[in-house]
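note to self: dont lose this again. the chain is below, predicted strucutre after it. 114 aa total, dont forget to put it in the shared folder this time
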Amino acid sequence: MLRRICRISAGFMLAFFIVALLFFKAVTTPLSMEEPFREFAVNQGETLAESTKRLAEEKFIKNPATLNTLIFISGNSSPFRPGIYSISASMSPVYILREMRKGSIVIERNVIDK
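---
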């Protein structure tokens, strides 16, 4: 019985290790190696889910779920600061998140309500 529990535990630990390795690879590997910098606009009132979905749609990242998981793990779920960022698909998802969390905005958007 104890051997069976040890084998099951070892199996779970191995599976966890493999998943962790795959996640690490996903967040540290850029989508492209030679992609030029482009502008990415974050609009006033846009949620993180909307921003990460658009990052994938505009081919900056491969999968929004990867970036959302990274955001969840980091513990900072506040939306990105509105503005226009200069980013590239040759940046890893970790680096894109870091740049957008720093608020490295090329052009700041001021929205005036009428």
